[in-house]
């Protein structure tokens, strides 16, 4: 029987700028397009470009969507351990950093209109100490 893998939260999210730290595209910086926590992978714009050979489906009458055939280049997912988050420091320079978490106090509102204090977890850039 297959063992169920626990889904852990990845420290990068869609829209984050990351730098590739290993592999054939080492040193490239790009934006995270998609995150796949169940496979521990992320897709980064302009990184790990692969070519796919697609069949032309325009001539087939049963096809609902017609695709133009040919060789199509697109990004493939890479392992999340091969990327590191990039943030801007106080001088405006881009710095690679690890991600930490901190609890901040926030005011929440109940459906009846009353307010109460609670805490929320926020991501912190370890290099700068600022909230991401």
How does this model look, in words?
Helices cover 0% and strands 47% of the residues. A hairpin with a 4-residue loop joins strand 2 and strand 3. It has strands at 17-20, 29-36, 41-44, 49-54, 70-75, 78-79, 83-88, 94-97, 99-109, 115-125. The protein is extended. The protein contains no helices and 10 strands. The chain is mostly beta strands and 132 residues long. The protein has one domain (17-62, 76-125): SH3 type barrels (Roll), CATH 2.30.30.
Topology, pairings included?
Blueprint: E1 17-20, E2 29-36, E3 41-44, E4 49-54, E5 70-75, E6 78-79, E7 83-88, E8 94-97, E9 99-109, E10 115-125
Antiparallel strand pairs: 1-2, 1-7, 2-3, 3-6, 4-5, 7-8, 9-10
Summarize the structure.
The protein has 132 residues and is mostly beta strands.
Nearest-integer average pLDDT: 89
Assign the CATH class.
Mainly Beta
| Beta content | over 45%
Which structural category do the helix and sheet elements fall into?
Answer: mainly beta
Main sheet strand line-up: 6-3-2-1-7-8
The major pleated sheet works out as: 6 strands, antiparallel
According to DSSP, the number of beta strands is 10
């Amino acid at each position: 029987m297959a063992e169920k893998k626990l889904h852990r939260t990845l420290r990068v999210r869609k829209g984050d700028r990351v730098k590739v730290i290993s592999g054939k595209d080492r040193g490239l910086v790009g934006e995270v397009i998609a995150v796949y926590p169940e496979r521990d992978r992320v897709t980064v714009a302009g990184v790990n470009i692969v070519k796919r050979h697609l069949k032309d489906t325009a001539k087939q009458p049963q096809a609902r969507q017609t695709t133009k055939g040919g060789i199509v280049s697109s990004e493939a997912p890479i392992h999340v351990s091969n990327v590191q988050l990039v943030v801007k420091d106080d001088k405006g320079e881009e710095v690679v950093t690890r991600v930490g978490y901190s609890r901040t106090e926030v005011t929440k509102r109940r459906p009846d209109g009353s307010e109460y204090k609670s805490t929320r977890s926020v991501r912190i850039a370890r290099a700068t100490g600022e909230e991401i």
